[in-house]
Amino acid sequence: MLRQIEGSRAVAETVARCRPEVVCAYPISPQTHIIEAIGAMVKSGQLSPCEFINVESEFAAMSVSIGASATGARAYTATASQGLLFMIEAVYNAAGLGLPIVMTLANRAIGAPINIWNDHSDAMAVRDSGWIQLFAETNQEAVDLHIQAFQLAEELSLPVMVCMDGFILTHAVEGIDVPDQSDVDAFLPPYEPRQVLDPSDPISIGAMVGPEAFEEVRYLSHLRQLDALERIPVLAGEFTESFGRESGGLLHCYRTEDAETIVVALGSVLGTIKDAADARRAMGERVGVVGITSFRPFPHDAVRSALSRARRVVVVEKAFSVGFGGVLSTDIAMATHDDDLTIHTVVAGLGGRAITQHSLEGMLVDATNGRLERLTFLDLDHGIIERERDRMTATRRSGPSAENILRDLGTVASRIG
Amino acid sequence: MKELPFAITLEVGSSHANRTGSWRVERPVYVDRMPPCNNACPAGENIQRWLYEAESGDYETAWRQLADDNPFPAVMGRICYHPCETTCNRAQLNEAVGINSIERFLGDLAIERGWPLPRAGSDTGKRVLVVGGGPSGLSAAYHLRRLGHEVRLVDSAPELGGMMRYGIPAYRLPREVLVAEVERIIALGIHVELDHTVHDIESERRNGGFDAVFLAVGAQLARRVEIPAGDSSRILDAVSLLHRTAEHDPPLLGRRVAIYGGGDTAVDAARTARRLGATDAVIVYRRNRERMPAHGDQIEEAIEEGVTMRWLSTVSRFEGDHLVLEKMRLNDKGFPEPTGEFDELDADSLVLALGQDTDLSLLDEEPGITIEEGVIEVSPAMMAGGNGIFAGGDAVPSERTATVAIGHGKRAARGIGAYLAGQILVDPPCNELATFDHLNTWYYSDAPRTRRPELEQARRQSTFDEIFGGLTEDNALFEARRCLSCGNCFECDNCFGVCPDNAVIKLGGSARYEFDYDFCKGCGICAQECPCGAIDMVPERI
Amino acid sequence: MTSQPVRFYQVGSFAVGNRLFDKENRTVQSDPHRSNSLDSGHRACQGCGEALGARYALDAAMRATGGQLIAVNATGCLEVFSTPYPETSWRVAWLHSLFANAPAVATGVAAALKVKGMQDVRVVGQAGDGGTVDIGFGCLSGMFERNDDVLFICYDNEAYMNTGVQRSGATPPAARTATTEAVGAEPGNVFGQGKDLPRLAMAHGIDYVATATVADLHDLEAKVERAMQFHGARYLHILVPCPLGWGSAPNDTIRVARLAAESGIFPVFEAEHGEVTAVSPIRHREPVESYLSLQSRYAHLFGEHGRPDIVARIQAIADHNISTYGLLEEQAVGTGSNETSP
Questions:
Q1: Into which CATH architecture does domain B127-220+358-420 fall?
Q2: For A173-220, how does the pLDDT look when each residue is reduced to its tens digit (9 = 90+)?
Q3: CB contact under 8 A, A89 and C106
Q4: Structural domain for C265, as ranges
């Protein structure tokens, strides 16, 4: 049943229906509404049995989740941005130990400069941690992915991160169908751990592994992610059967059948991109869209297949590898492995900058006309860049760039002091 | 086999594959060392072992262990000068363990409860003559019977006990205690003949058909010196004073009694004199207190009882009602030298306590026996001659105490046993002495020594009642538990507990421990933390 | 003369075992069927105090919980020497996650047990001093503050031994470490408070805080036993000499720990609800020199170019501890557990 509801609230209610047994919380925008709502449900007894633990840091949040999961409890937490970085050591550890923790990542930029708005820098920072990373395009998909995430995590004994764009999704109020408890229960069996801390059958978890076996351990993790590539579409199919709508899977294709230009992206920006594609199609350009849901494991075959007939691919990324370029683009290039295919990286929406249909269309026109460079930054204000570079050349003590730029822009903050 | 994630999760017990014993350069080994008390005991008691039994309150086992070596625990618990306590390592920590008082407690308890000595051994068909029914003869008779030999014990006195009966005053050794322990020995089936003086050992042996003889005739003859004295001056010797007192026929001494000599007998004589009514009992001795051979506690007790001392004095003559004493001084070597200065001491009688000699006339016809300075030379097995004559006690060269005599008796019995079996007595190798530096004394509780109750002074000066009482059971237990068990594992579990590698196996019961050399890394904590020094570290073999 | 109550047997309660004690008064370590929570075959150095302390503590906890125990371990020597693939020395259910997070992981374990209604299973977190007072302190403080049902044990060997003896917040003044070399005008570690974690733990107001050493097993076990009587956050700080890092002889491990207590440099006490309730009195007071001179990390304080001035400053710290905690017998708050009636 559709309800007008905030994305965070919907996710919280959904997570609750997945019956997590230990939930850890440390506040960081924009994930706070999720754990606030779960906390209230635990405190009221609505979600029971469940231990809701207010910890002193994200590092502790993930660590508590590790302990709980290793003891056989279904564990959930949520974070964003700096919080993810603060817990990163434990993020890697949870994956290394093969603990099926589910975490919501309310994607947000990483400082400095500090910035609370959305981009994908945080998710990219833990790309290689061994977690499964699923990106939600809509709040409905965010809701649905959480149910599938617990199932997937526990089946494979791997942690799963559900990435949803901060504010854009977390704080958007819209019509969302939060599945009924009985449907979730029917879909998601109780957690049956692969290994568990049990005094009556003691084992040692977390051994030191040297060169003689470390590579094998890592390779086994890789194989399990490859197993996930098999399981994710199957689960999505089962989800559709149970809940009557399509959600999840490895990727979504939109009007790609005859597309010469295909735009690839992660997350909520796909909606705007689809609008832009529709607009360009109306102008006679054959533009299609591919939304990657499963960023890790990366669906090489599905991507290659989806892009096989395109002449050019434009990857719109809300993050980039400084000094190199696109992150997702690199993965796409690896997947397609086609010298005739031109791949463009368009970095967009960093730190929450709006990605407008107008800008996207302009970019697509350039692409169609062969004017789009291999790496571009959407809506970049070149004037600001020039002024700051001049300043830096002119004087050694040119001051912090961020503040200089704010002053140039004449924003409110720049006038303080 | 559980299906566990590869490498990061491991199964219990898997570390046993890693034999850390290969790291070791030194290995710990359990050793037994000779405790100083055992080492010092003239009677050869395994003191530490019987203390160990007493510590658990199993007094009967403790007493049996004790009586295994010495059939006189109640007597020794009173009259032994306890060299064990002098060497006790606990003395360096606070005060020596009161071994003697625990021995007495056990001895008295055995008498009270009627615990019998171990039975005689199965008959060997050999016959042994024991001459002398003092501590040495009785001890030999006891041990010979346990070896299964037939024993005939003869003594010229009307009662058994020798110097324990006729030399040691009753206030130190009540007669009923002596009687009880002597009777218990005789009950093993010893043929006793009293009032029988042996004049010729060879004919006595031949007539009786004895396969071996043990001479334990003691030293009964008081040594005399010529002291110029008036007719009325009363001079007697300590041996006869003590002997007659023991027979309830004390000689008249008068009010003022001088005792000449510095040994334990002199002190006994002086204290006896006090009890016989002397107002003044004065010991005259030519050297000073430090050089006095009597045992210190005896001197102290005597002084407590009002006995006084004239140090550095010799008796020149006895003139009617007083003695003329010459003052002495000690030279560089500690020997007394006359000063030519004189002093007087009022005295009604003078008791000479100048040592005793042995009457060895019974050996006059015996060939192959060496007598030096009035005593019989003996081999380590106490054999005096080649043909089965053994000797011990005061009649052979050694310190003249009942404890030494008891030890001689035991040793001679073993020597005789070996001789009768056509063997030579071989002593087992002796363990290294458990000296104080072997101990880790931190572990021992700080326990003050328990004092025996003492008889109040008034009664000590007028009666022959026993001065020292026995310990209560609690006190005896407390005292026994002060033992440090020097050099011998007493199963405190320290090695078992302190090993960081669990490489000590506790065998349980009283079987102690074993090292698990598969895992012992040789760190040596066990040896360092062993309270009693029963672990050595030895270099590992290559 | 009245009879003296028989209070002890030779070694009283100072040694590991005592054949005359009642069963319940015997140490866990004297039991041939003890858990051996940390089993043979581990790769700790010869004479490792931490290996010993960990077995002492966990075996005691195993007895106190009837074997219903889960241990969470921080990274460090204890973890590395006990669980190198393919061999584990642990006989208890055991989890190692990271260096800094053992208290939080333990919280998670406790939360899982609670939610599953398995509160008879108890949780111990354990770490070295680095994992406790430095890198793990944030998580530890959070665990304390929330009063999670975890006994956290710090095996304090006063430096980062696993990485090669670098200074930690628990390294004592003047001690040489690889990052506080014994050179210059102020050789070794700086003088200062260090992090007095037992006091910091007490400041959280948690139910139970205690210190112990591997030199007094009865005391250590009694404290684990006591700690297990509480539900909520508890803290036990155990001094565990490190022959490698301290430069002491492997066979001196217990002796050094004993001298730390007997000199007053390491006060042994327990506290409940933030207040000191008992101290283990010093039996035979020793000058700090007896303790320091057994360890080459203090070698620069002795000999021809020794620093008696620095020794005196360390002595002053010990004296201060003695007066603060009342460690001398006559002024002791409590009597400790040294004299147990058989």
A1: 3-Layer(bba) Sandwich (3.50)
A2: 999 999 999 999 999 999 999 999 999 999 999 999 999 999 999 999
A3: no
A4: 23-331
Collect all residues of chain B within an 8 Å Cβ-Cβ radius of residue C4.
450, 474-475, 478
Give B 36-55 residues with CB within 8 A of chain C.
Answer: 55
What is the rounded CA–CA span in Å between residue B167 and residue B238?
9
Buried residues in C142-161 as b, exposed as e (16+ CB within 10 A):
bbbebbbbbbbbbbbbbbbb
Residues 6+ apart with CB under 8 A from A404: A388, A391, A398
Looking at the domain B36-115+439-480, which fold is it? Answer: Fumarate Reductase Iron-sulfur Protein; Chain B, domain 2 (1.10.1060)
Q: Indicate the angle between helix axes B99-113 and B59-69, nearest 10 degrees.
A: 100
Distance from CA of C55 to the nearest CA of A (A): 15
**Domains, chain A, ranges and CATH?**
2-198+207-243 (3.40.50.970), 251-377 (3.40.50.920), 382-415 (no CATH)
Confidence band for C268, pLDDT divided at 50, 70 and 90 = very high
Question: What are the helix and strand counts (H, E) for chain C?
Answer: 11, 8
Cis, peptide link before residue B511, omega less than 30° from 0: no
Q: Looking at the complex, report in whole angstroms how far the Cα of residue A195 sits from the nearest Cα belonging to chain C.
A: 11
Is CATH 3.50.50.60 what the domain over B227-354 is classified as, yes or no?
A: yes
* Half-sphere exposure at residue B44, Cβ-oriented, CA atoms within 13 angstroms: 17
Q: What residue has token string 């079987």?
A: B511
Residue C289 lies in a domain: yes
Average pLDDT in the C275-284 region?
Answer: 95
Chain C contact present for B453, CB below 8 A = yes
Contact by Cβ (8 Å): A1, A55: no
Does C43 map to a domain? yes
Please give the structure tokens belonging to residue B357. Answer: 């000699």
Nearest to C314 by CA among C181, C188, C130: C188
Calpha distance B164→B176 (Å, rounded) = 12
Q: Distance between CA B354 and CA B258 in Å, rounded?
A: 13
Q: The whole model's pTM is what?
A: 0.92
Closest CA relative to residue B194, chosen from B220, B164, B161, B155? B155
CA distance C155 to C163: 16
What CATH number did the domain enclosing C249 receive? 3.40.50.970
pLDDT band with cut points at 50, 70 and 90 for residue C333: very low
Position A248 scores a pLDDT of 96
CB-nearest to C254 from B13, B496, B529 is B529
Q: Return all residues near A294 (Cβ < 8 A) that are at least 6 apart.
A: A132, A133, A134, A228, A229, A232, A249, A250, A251
Q: Which residues of C touch A49 (CB under 8 A)?
A: 115-117
Judge if B127-220+358-420 and B227-354 fold alike in CATH terms: yes
Chain centre to alpha carbon of residue A134:
6
Strand B9-11, strand A203-205: pairing: antiparallel
Is B1:B482 a contact under the CB 8 Å cutoff? no
> Does some domain include residue C342?
no
Compute the half-sphere exposure of residue B541: CA atoms within 13 Å on the CB side of its CA.
1
Domain count, chain C: 1
How near does any CA of chain A get to the CA of B18, in Å? 15
In a domain, C14, yes or no: no
Given an 8 Å threshold on Cβ–Cβ distance, is C88 in contact with A197?
A: no
Tell me if ipTM is over 0.90: yes
Query: Judged by CB atoms within 8 Å, which residues 52-71 of B form the interface with C?
Result: 55-56
Least Cα distance to C268 among C206, C205, C198, C330 occurs for C198
- B14-32+489-539 — its CATH code? 3.30.70.20
Task: Encode pLDDT of B388-441 as tens digits.
Answer: 999 999 999 999 999 999 999 999 999 999 999 999 888 888 899 999 999 999
